[in-house]
Amino acid sequence: MMTPLQQVVMAVIQITVLISIILLIVPVMTFAERKVIGYIQVRLGATRQAGGIRGFAAGINKLSWHLGRIPILSFLRGLPVFAADGLKLLLKEDIVPDRADRFVFVIAPVICMIPAFATFAVICFYPGTLFVFPEPFPIVGGLPFTGFLTDINVGLLYIMAVGSIGVYGIVLGGWASNSKYPLLGGLRSAAQIISYEIPLSLSLLAAVVLAGTLNFRELSVYLAGVPTVTAAGTTVQMPLLAGIPLFLGFFFYLTCGFAETNRVPFDLAEAETELVSGFHTEYTGMKFAWFMLAEYANMMAVSAIAAGFFLGGHYLLPFGLQRFVPDSMPFLAQPSLLFFFGKVFFLLFVFLWVRATLPRYRYDQLMSVGWKWLIPVTLVNLLIAAAIRFIL
Amino acid sequence: MSILKKLLPIDIASGMKLTGKYFGRNFLQANRSKKHIHITVEYPETPITIAPRYRGRLQMLRDEQGEIKCVCCLACEKICPTQVITIEKGKKEGRKTPYPTRYDFEMERCIFCEFCVESCGFDSIILNHQFELAAYNREDFSLGMEGQFQDMFRVSPVGQHSIASSAAPDAPDYTR
To answer: What CA–CA distance (Å, rounded) separates A263 from A193?
Structure first.
């Protein structure tokens, strides 16, 4: 049994690893966004940075031009741009508008960012021990490093609750800017997130009804379709038909996830053609970077939840089809961190893909899609899931 | 049926299919040096193709003997809407036709209308394909005959760094 000190140290280590992974993926995502949207629009995306004919920047540009001839390395050509982007955000002047509510203005990005990161506390990346610390380690020697931070029984409830806090940051940021456009953007975001929280929860409820638990780890293992042993000692396995509500629910959840994270085509909170850039119009420098960080972390959280619940989590096949993979197969039958991150990265790619494809919804269209279509349809989906659970 | 059509996002799916197709094609072949699908050009390194009718900087031409073709009929000077051309008539040993001792071209006011080239009866001037005409000094825009600060037979100093323009003024192939 772990002592309190060991527990704290273990938690700190796991949180550090998790946050560093998020902080690593977020800037890579901003880089990938340039490249992916570039490729879709028959361009190359970022390949070089601004600079003169001579000098340091020109040297890097020349290097990246030669890099373009090497097959795989050529995709990394714009990387100096992303380093320059990060440096720029750090070094930029931090402007607070004259009549802004200073305290709220400063705290809004933090309110936006912390829930986005806190969501990852219950997300299960791997349903077991990744590795055990060797004995020579001072405090944590011999302790297992698990693929999840916490394994609480109300994991999903926690995600829903924490995820809803993020909108406070957006609304407060819009209000504290003391400007019309940010305020409109913040209010739009609030209305949008309230509307889409309902179908989001309903689509997740279908999964919960099937599995009969709110624990993220148990949910993802059960919904992958592999036989699991419950605490009572009986073996349970998801019926094959349950893949139907899962399949439908995945698309409903993804649609609502786009709305929850304020991404295109639901980015009415920062509709730049109407509202300059919405709630973060007045934000500059590091505070703006925090909003960006929160948005990308939210995208990751939504992708991780969708991957864990609907796409079979850490198993290979989605929608409960994992049962068809025979146990004798060495790698494919086992849960793996690789499968989970593969799914997460694919869903992150889908975010960019959709951004490059779909135009923004009009405000009334957004509301009508949310209330008139998604809520009834997710309710029907929940009904199907409940029927399958009741009959089979 | 219509309700099904409204429920199923067919249009979104077809749009995603199209963009996915383009992504796949470009992702696999965009950065290879041999086959390009992307429509953008990596400009300073890759020479760009310029349309034959492109109107770049004014340039004087020479004939086969290396003589300047211009005979100082002043047609270009007269027709120029912004009056950027100034010609001074002169004589040269062993040449029957008049010889321009001065042919000043002030590019900062030029509107690149190509009237001068059209009016020229001796095909002695041309608007070449040099498009990198930006400069830091005003003096860089006044061009003239050989021996002046910047003559009309060479590339402008700004354009000299680019591969794209290196072939344009001195090489005889103007249709590139």
So the answer is: 12
Q: Is residue A97 within 8 Å of residue A282, measured between CB atoms?
A: yes
Taking a C-beta distance cutoff of 8 angstroms, is the pair A100, A279 a contact?
Answer: no
3-state SS assignment for residue A159: helix
**pLDDT in the model for residue A246:** 86
CB distance B23–A353 less than 8 Å?
yes
Does A265 sit behind a cis peptide bond, omega within 30 degrees of 0 on the bond before it? Answer: yes
Q: For residue range A75-133, what is the model confidence (pLDDT) as tens digits?
A: 788 788 877 877 888 888 888 888 888 888 888 898 888 988 888 888 888 877 777 77
Q: Does A72 touch chain B (CB under 8 A)?
A: no
* pLDDT band per the 50, 70, 90 thresholds, residue A379: very high
Return the bridge partners of B88, or none. B102
Which of B26, B39, B46, B165 is the mutation pick for testing A, counting most A CBs within 10 A?
A: B26
- The C-alpha atoms of residue A243 and residue A224 are separated, in whole angstroms, by 9
Residue bearing tokens 């002046």: B148
| Whole-number Å distance between alpha carbons of B69 and B87 | 14
Whether B158 has a pLDDT exceeding 70, the answer reads: no
* Residue A365 at interface with chain B, using a CB cutoff of 8 Å: no
Instruction: For strands B99-106 and B85-90, give the pairing.
Output: antiparallel
Is pTM beyond 0.90 here?
no
What ipTM was reported for this prediction? 0.78
